[in-house]
Amino acid sequence: MVSLCYNLFIYFVNLPDFRLAQIMIFAIEEINRSEMLLPNVSIGYQIYDTCSSRMSSMSATMGLMNGPEFAAGETCNGQSSIHAIIGETESSATMLVSLFVLYLFFFSQISHTASCECLSNRKDHPSFFRTISSDYHQSRALAYIVKHLGWSWVGAVNSDNDYGNYGMAIFLNTAQKEGICVEYSEKFYRTEPEKLKKVVDTIKKGTTKVIVAFVSFIEMGLLIDQLNILNITGLQIIGVEGWITSKSLITPKSFQVMGGSLGFALRKINLEGFSDYVVKAFWETAFPCTQIKENSSQYVINCSRYQDLLALKNYNEDVPEQRYSSHVYKAVYAVAHSLHSLLKCKEQEGFNFTVKFGDRVWFDRTGAAVAQYEVVNWQQDSDGSLQFKSVGYYDASLPPDQQFVLNTENIIWARGQLKPSSICSESCLPGTRKAAQKGRPVCCYDCIPCAEGEISNETGNLTQCPGEYWSNAEKNKCVLKAVEFLSFTEVMGIVLVFFSLFGAGLTVLVAILFYRMRDTPIVKANNSELSFLLLFSLTLCFLCSLTFIGQPNEWSCMLRHTAFGITFVLCISCLLGKTIVVLMAFKATLPGSNVMKWFGPAQQRLSVVAFTLIQVLICVLWLTISPPFPHKNMKYFKEKIILECSLGSTISFWAVLGYIGLLAVLCFILAFLARTLPDNFNEAKFITFSMLIFCAVWITFIPAYVSSPGKFTVAVEIFAILASSFGLLFCIFAPKCYIILLKPYQNTKKHMMGKNIF
C-alpha cells in the first residue's frame, strides 16, 4: 500500500490569523486520521507569515517555485511540492497570488476571507475558489438594511484597496437604485494618515449620522482611534464582516463612539473538539515550561522563553465566535474532497460536501460560497459587558422575499437613544411636492405647493390627476372636474330662454293678428300665404335655439344644427319668394308682359320647397356620414370639462351655413334691386334692410363663434339665431302691424294703390 503526501500552503497574518493557522492544522490532522477521506494519503502544510504586506505575499509566493531546501540567494530551481494554496487573507494580496497561480503554477487557490467581487471574474481567476461569499451580496445587503430602516441620507467610508473600492462601488450603485443618497464617499489606506484625517473631518462636518463603513479590520481600528480622539459620538455605524465582530475593537473606550453599530457578520459556527485541542494539546506540547529550583524545597515554573507568546494563552475566550475559523476548516476539507475525487477518478458535475457541523459546502459559478450572514448589533449588557448580539440575518440561498430579516425591536441604537433619523429633507406634506436643490443629491429638496392638476399624498408621491379629474384646493386628492354646459338654470341660460320664448310668442301674436286681418289689403299684398309660412318658420327659428340649451346628448346634438339649418333656409326661401314676386309684379305692369303666369302661387310654393329640400338633403347626408355627437372638451380649460356637441363633419356644418348665406346674399341682391320700385310694392325695402341685418349678424358670428370658449360658443350661436330672427320679424312685419293696429284707415285698397303708404 502506497502512502502519498500532499502539501498545502497558507497565508496568515498577525494574532487572529495565528489562531486560524491552528484551525488549519486541526482540520489537517483530523483528515489524516480519517479512514473514509483520503485513506493512505497524508496532507502536509507550510505556513508563511505575510505580515499584512503585499511585498511579503509576493516573496512567499515566489518561494513556492522551489523546494523546501531552497535558501536565500540561490537560483530558483522550480521544484515545489505544493499542490494547493489556502489564503491569502486580504483581497488585494489574494489577487496577486491568484495571478501567479494562473501563469506559473498548476494548482488551485482557496481563500477563507478574500471576499472582493473582483475575484469573481473566472476569466482572470479560473483556479480561484473561496469558502466565503462574494462582497456582491454583502454590499447589496448594506443598501437593503439602510432602506429597511428608513434612512435615505448616509455617509460612506471605505478602505482604499480592492476590498473596499469594489465593495463600496456595488453599495453606491445599489443605493442609487434604492433611492438612497450618499452625502459623501471617502476612502483611505492604513499608510495614509493625511487621508484618514480628511475622512474624519468630513464625518465631523457632515449632516448625516449614519455611516456605512466598508473598511477592513486594520483601517477600522485607525478610524475608531481618530473618532475617539476628537470625541465624535452619536454616529450610527453600519459595518461589514471585516471588522464588525472583532473582539479587539469592542472596548469600553471605543463603545462610546461605536456603541449601537450594526453590521453583517459571518455565521457563528462551533467546531467540535477544537477548543480542547487548542487549550490543552497546543500549550502543553508546543511551549513546555521548565522547572527551576528556587530553594531546597520549592520549584517554580519558568516560562520566560515564551514571554512574547503569553498574551495568547488566554485567547480561548474567543474560540466560541469561530466565524472565520469555519471557513478555514471548510477550505481544508474542500481540498481534501477534491483530491479524494481525483484519486478515485470520480467525475462530478458539481462539487459539494457536508462537514461535520452540518454545513453543506458548495461553490457557485464564480467559485464562491453562498452568501449567509448574521446581522449583529454592538450592545452592552446589564452587567456592563460588551457583546455582539444577533438581530437578524441575510441568506441569499432563500427565496427573495425571505432573504433578509431584521428584528428592529432587539436593536440598541447609537448611545442607547431612539432610532436615529437620517434624511436630508423632511417628507413633504400632502399637497406639496419636491423641488430639487441645485447642486445637491435628489434626497435634498424643498417642498413647494403642487401645480394645478397635481396632488401628493402622505407618502410624498406626486401624481398627475387623470383626464376627468382635477386637484382639490388642498392638492391632496383628485376630484371629478366640474362639468360645464349652458344650462336652463343659470342666468345666461334663463335670459336666452326668455328671449327665445318671447320671440316665438311675439311671432305667434303677429300670426294671429295677420290671420284675423287676412282679408285686408295689407295682409293680402305680396302673397299672404308666404307671409304665414314666413311667420311659421320664424317661430321655429326662435324655438330651435332652445335645443342649444341644456346638457348635450346624442339626439339634441343632431337636432340643434339640422333644425337650425332647415328652419332658416325655409325662412329665407319665403323672403326670396316674396322678393321675386315683387320683381315679377313690376315686370307684369309693363305693356305686353305676361311674366306673372310663370311665377304664380304654385311656382312660389314650389320654389320654397325646392330651396328647403336642398338644405334637407345636406342635413341628411351630414347625419348619415358623420353626425354631431356629445363630446367632453378638456382642451379649453384644464380644471373643468366642457360638455358640447362636436360637429362630426366640419365640412357639413359649414355647408349648411354656406347655403344659408348664399340664399341670404341672393335675397339681399334681389331686394336691393327692387328697392326703387313704386311705393305700393315697397316691401322690398324692408326685405333689403332685414337681409342687411341678417348678413351682418352672421358675418360677425363667424369670428365670435371660433374664438369663444366653452359654453359661450353655444351662447354666441343662440344670440346669432335670436338676433337674426328678431331682425327679420321686426323689419318685415313691424311696419304692417303698425298700420293694422295704429293706422287702420290706411289698410284699404285705395291707400294700397296710392303712394307713401308707410
UniProtKB/TrEMBL annotation:
It holds the Pfam family NCD3G. GO terms for cellular component: plasma membrane. The chain crosses the membrane at residues 491-515, 530-550, 562-586, 606-625, 651-674, 686-706, 718-742. InterPro entries: ANF_lig-bd_rcpt, GPCR_3, GPCR_3_9-Cys_dom, GPCR_3_9-Cys_sf, GPCR_3_C, GPCR_3_Ca_sens_rcpt-rel, GPCR_3_CS, GPCR_3_vmron_rcpt_2. It is a multi-pass membrane protein. Keywords: Cell membrane, G-protein coupled receptor, Glycoprotein, Membrane, Receptor, Signal, Transducer, Transmembrane, Transmembrane helix. It is found in: Cell membrane. One of its GO terms (molecular function) is G protein-coupled receptor activity. PANTHER family: C-FAMILY ODORANT RECEPTOR OLFCD2-RELATED (PTHR24061:SF528), CALCIUM-SENSING RECEPTOR-RELATED (PTHR24061). This is G-protein coupled receptors family 3 profile domain-containing protein. It comes from Cyprinus carpio.
